[in-house]
Amino acid sequence: MNKPQSKKLRNFLIFSLAMLVLFLQGCATTQPTPVDPLAYRNRTKTSVNGDITVTVAVPTISEARAIYGVQLASKYIQPVWVEVRNDGDDTYWFLSSGLDPDYFFPSEAAFAFKTDDKNFQKLQFKNPIGPGSTQSGFILVNLDEGFKAIDIDLISRKAVKSFSFITTDPEFKADFKLVNFDTLYKAEDIINIEDEEELRRKLEELPGFTTNADGDKKGDPLNLVLIGETNDIVPALVRRNWHATETTWSRAIMRTVKSYLQGERYRYSPISPLYVFGRPQDIGWQKARNTINERNHARFWLSPFRFRGKKVFVGQISRDIGVKFTLKSPTISTHVIAPDVDEARRYFVEDLAYSQAMAKLGYVKGVGVVNRKEPRLNLVGDPFYTDGLRGVLFFEPRPYTLSEIQILTWETPSGFYDVSKRE
Fold this sequence. Notes:
Blueprint: H1 3-27, E1 45-49, E2 52-57, H2 61-68, E3 77-86, E4 93-94, H3 96-99, H4 106-112, H5 118-123, E5 134-142, E6 147-155, E7 160-168, E8 191-193, H6 196-204, E9 209-211, E10 218-221, E11 224-228, H7 230-239, E12 243-244, H8 250-262, E13 275-276, E14 279-280, E15 283-288, E16 295-307, E17 310-325, E18 333-337, H9 341-353, E19 358-365, E20 376-377, E21 383-384, E22 389-395, E23 406-407
Parallel strand pairs: 8-16, 11-22, 19-23
Antiparallel strand pairs: 1-2, 2-3, 3-5, 4-6, 6-7, 9-10, 11-17, 12-15, 13-14, 15-16, 16-17, 17-18, 19-22, 20-21
Helix pairs in contact: 1-8
């Protein structure tokens, strides 16, 4: 097929897909139901640190509109509700920049909607929190769909108290919502591990590659392991601007098509299913770049292992560098990955080192060396090469500085900075 014909086919497919989605959306149109502006109070999360109790909640996009009277999400603004109860004898101050260094002033947000700021000011959280008092209100931050990581830092003359929360958006159709993590494994199938050397051996026994649905074809290498509590792992990812992926439904398809046509990024774009343990990924993450054609994306599966009581996820990461059309994908189009998947792994490790929650790092054997001169092909025909190792990241409650990260003396990535060593 020559280039003009190929371009015509591509444009026809995009146009057809857009029309199909518009048709589906038109068929699904219903009258909006009234929204309770206080419904977010049913999803609060609370944590106690000494004499300080912090409660948080995040209104949905529709709830936020009912609260403020304007569509905050149209300006990528999101309110986070914070309540602080001080049962001590010292005065505390809440640092809004710890929640979002680019948070919005009430007057700034009101100006964006050409409205009076009285209601915005009334709803805003107000410092300080005096002894024996409780303060509550909203902080206006940048919009995150799917997950929201909430870091609350309070300071007084005597102490600093930090809290971390993770909330999920009930209106967001994410792939992880299709999984019941509590019932994935029976109690008798869970393998509890206490010793680090035993953990190392078990991690090397995990599957090496993703597969297709039938399990008879190998795909991308499984090159990551995450160990920790969900409430430590998820906020670490969100803190570093990783976003959950949407399921493939009409609105997600429409957003994908729009992003492609306009050359924009789409932070929650669906990713195709790959299989481990006989099932598609339990959760997908991505870090979008400037356009929908370019992103870092990862898939993770909960394993039957538990290390000292904490969950062990095995995963795969690669970097998308373009888009191609292929009959090997059920959606006809797919992303093209960068062939050096070790660089994607290294990027993930370095990025999460700044999350303030990574406590340890090690490497174990995985798929084995795949030389650059003799690359393997993934399920859609993209070549890749690797040193064959998988990075193992251990997560703990924040804060962990770079100097506090412990490096385990297991395996050393060969050619970590020198591609020629893998030739």
